[in-house]
Known about the structure:
It contains two helices and 15 strands. With 257 residues, it is mainly beta.
Amino acid sequence: MLHPVWAFATTQDDQLHTLTQESENPVAKLATLPFQDNTYFRYGTFNRPQYVLNIQPVIPFSLTPDWNLITRTILPVMNQPNFYRSHAYSGGIGDLNPTFFLSPANPGKVIWGLGPSFLFPTATQHDLGAGKWGAGPAAVVLGMPGNWVLGALAYNIWSFAGESNRPTYDQLTLQYFINYNFPKGWFVVSSPIVTADWQANSNDVWTVPVGGGFGRVFLMGKQAVNTSLQAFYNVKQPELTGPAWSVRFVFTFLFPE
């Protein structure tokens, strides 16, 4: 069955516009499977690239006629340079980060969601994860005036258990997003991910990227997909580890009802 909004759209351009806006809403009732490929440049003590592929399935559930539960999970697959050996890398899976948003099924102009976010120590190598179990609050708020989609998603996770010889985990993740949508599924986007490691030294707390890029929603046969490419420069970064800048390519399968 088609999603009601999708079904009533009268032209392919209307369909693409509707689906594009839905795909840009973190708490839309839209199942997606994004593959987010990140390359971070000048990372670590030897200024080498770090590669992180985030597999990020989003699965919505209708709890009642008035409330939805949106599950967003991040599983990183990493290739990270060693901080102490100039030619060594560590490859494998990082820590799993599931987040759950309770969100109104029929929101007004302001769309929002609240819930918990978790950290599971699933890393396959020591230096690919925190070695801790963690949890904390998460929130998202956005609006869709005209062709715009504007909002922010944030969560802060504190560790409460795990390897006793590993540092305490206390980190904020904040992603604001600015999208402007054009005809035929095209859009421009800025969605940097700002982080704050509250346990780090004062000069190493913040990573603040600025930048953006473009993308398009289109049909690949009968399968709807969303692709985007963005580049970011870090105006603030940890002094010793970086990174200085990054490139993000995202390929997302979309599954409208």
